[in-house]
Amino acid sequence: MKQQVLVLYLATSALDADVVGWAAYDGTGRTNPTTGDGDQPPYRTGVAALRDGWRLLQASQLIPPYPGHEYDMSFLKHEFFFEKLEQ
Amino acid sequence: MTTSYPLLPSVRVARFVAQGFLRLDAVVPEELNTEGISALAAGMPDVPYGIPIAEAFPPGTFTSRLIGLPAVAGALRSLLGPDPTVDHHHVHVREPHGGEAQPLHGDAIIDTRPDAFDVQLMYYPHEVTAEMGGTLLVPGSHLRRTNETDTGRYQNLRGQIRLTCPAGTVLLLHHGIWHAGRRNDSDRLRYMYKIRFNPTAPQVRTWDTADLADPAVAAELDARFPWYEDATGRLEIYNRVALWRAMTGDTTFDIDHWATRVSNRPRRTA
Question: Would you say B106 and B176 are in contact if contact means Cβ atoms under 8 Å apart?
Fold first, then answer.
């Protein structure tokens, strides 16, 4: 079995929120996803990925801002890793 | 640079502050593009960091004439102020069917200046089609504090721009914008020439401010982009307000009370 990985970035910390960004890695070698290869997200929400058979591996923790840095902006906060296992 | 050029109006500068880039389509004439392709193919000699433009690119050279075009010179002057210096320049070449897409990145290193920014010029001497894998740009990403390719995991973001453009197009970018060179899947060589400029004077009211009070300015600064998370999207506006205050000297400027509300601390009396 080989692993396919899907990373979805959602508009809020809720898994049923809209997808705002995405990445994919294909351990089967059948596809080669890369930077800037599509403008349409693979799913509208995180839950839509679950319904298509993707298994949730990891969700971002909710971490309070460091004092004095409440208005700083950096990485996307709501990152969800999914996997599928394929032959 | 020439001294006779059109400065940008406030509404265009506000768009740059919101989006992190300014696009000047087909501003370079065909004959200069033809010369440009030859010049880029021959390679550009390195220049020392931080030297005046006239030293880096003496009058008469291709680059001097490129950045002396009125539309380009006016936009650079509007964003950088007088007498910017040249940080560095580089010719990017993508072979036909060659290379891999770059990871999404910001150039140089994490840059936390709240009241100054460098401008990067990107010049495309030929048409860039979708197949040629033009630059990927993420509008509104320039104020995020991330370091170089640490954003490499983000392959695609909603609302991203996969640049296609006519020959002679120039982009001016805020130094922090997330971008990447995409894979060239065409049969054509793709050139992009980048020059980074550093300001040498405060970047305050360096453009044509006649329209500063136009409501269209605040409307530009209030732009949201599809990749923003709901909550951090609000912080984007807050941080744009801070930059606009620094660039205008107007410490009362605000949009929808975002910055005013959270700084309101009435003095208590006994």
Answer: yes
Q: Is the pLDDT at B91 greater than 50, yes or no?
A: yes
Which residues of chain B are within 8 Å of residue A21 when distances are taken between CB atoms?
Answer: 154-158, 227
Phi, psi of B196 (to 5 degrees): -105, 130
Task: Test B231 with A12 for CB contact under 8 angstroms.
Answer: yes
Q: Do residues B105 and B151 lie in contact, with contact meaning Cβ atoms separated by under 8 Å?
A: yes
Assess if residue B2 is contained within a domain.
no
**Helix (H/G/I), strand (E/B), else coil: A29:** coil
Q: Is B114 in the same domain as B30?
A: yes
Closest CA to B151 of A74, A17, A4: A74
Count of beta carbons in the 10 Å neighbourhood of residue B143: 22
Whether residue B183 is contained in a domain is answered as yes
Q: What value does the mean pLDDT take over residues B122-138?
A: 94
Q: For B180, which of A7, A35, A78 is closest by C-beta distance? A: A35
Label each residue of chain B as H, E or C: CCCCCCCCEHHHHHHHHHHCEEEECCCCCHHHHHHHHHHHHHCCCCCCCCEEHHHHCCCCCHHHHHHHCHHHHHHHHHHHCCCCEEEEEEEEEECCCCCCCCCCECCCCCCCCCCCCCEEEEEECCCECHHHCCCEECCCCCCCCCCHHHHCCCCEECCCEECCECCCEEEEEECCCCEECCCCCCCCCEEEEEEEEECCCCCCCCCEHHHCCCHHHHHHHCCCCCCCCHHHHHHHHHHHHHHHHHHHCCCCCCCCCHHHHCCCCCCCCC
CB of A48 within 8 Å of any CB in chain B? no
Number of domains within chain B: 2
Among residues B144, B172, B198, which one ends one of the domains? B198
Least confident of B102-111, B183-192, B216-225: B183-192
Nearest Cα to Cα of residue B131 among B156, B158, B109, B163: B163
Q: Does B160 contact A36 at a Cβ distance shorter than 8 Å?
A: yes
The answer to the question of residue B127 being in a domain is yes
In a domain, B64, yes or no: yes
Whether B119 and B42 share a structural domain: yes
Prediction ipTM score? 0.98
